[in-house]
Design a protein that fits this description.
four-stranded antiparallel beta sheet, about 100 residues, 3 helices, elongated, 4 strands, single chain
């Protein structure tokens, strides 16, 4: 453990100060930092390999249409493209937005 702290002292110090300034726990700040780095890696892979939207597996949860995003080369899921209204959706896929003529119970 001493070796790990010695090698990454600057990183732990930065995380500690960030946690103290924002009144958050050290583990939460560390997790946020890891999530940020994962997002950057996903963006880099998407830029390298290209992406496509998997429209047949889209999900509608009542207010939002979520379409999974996959890489073209490895077919790994990177995230979701979220559409908040029917006007945002491309023309061929507007049929995926259900009509809300009947009241929701």
């Amino acid at each position: 453990m001493k070796k790990i702290i010695k090698r990454h002292k600057l990183t732990f110090t930065r995380l500690y100060h960030s946690a103290k300034e924002n009144d958050l726990g050290l583990t939460l700040v560390r997790q946020l930092s890891l999530d940020k780095h994962q997002l950057n890696r996903d963006r880099q892979v998407a830029r390298k390999e290209g992406i496509y939207l998997d429209w047949p597996n889209s999900l509608f949860d009542g207010f939002l249409l979520m379409v999974p995003i996959f890489t073209k080369k490895t077919h790994c899921e990177i995230g979701y493209q979220v559409y908040a209204s029917k006007a945002e959706i491309p023309e061929p896929y507007k049929c995926l937005w259900p009509t809300l003529a009947e009241p929701v119970q």
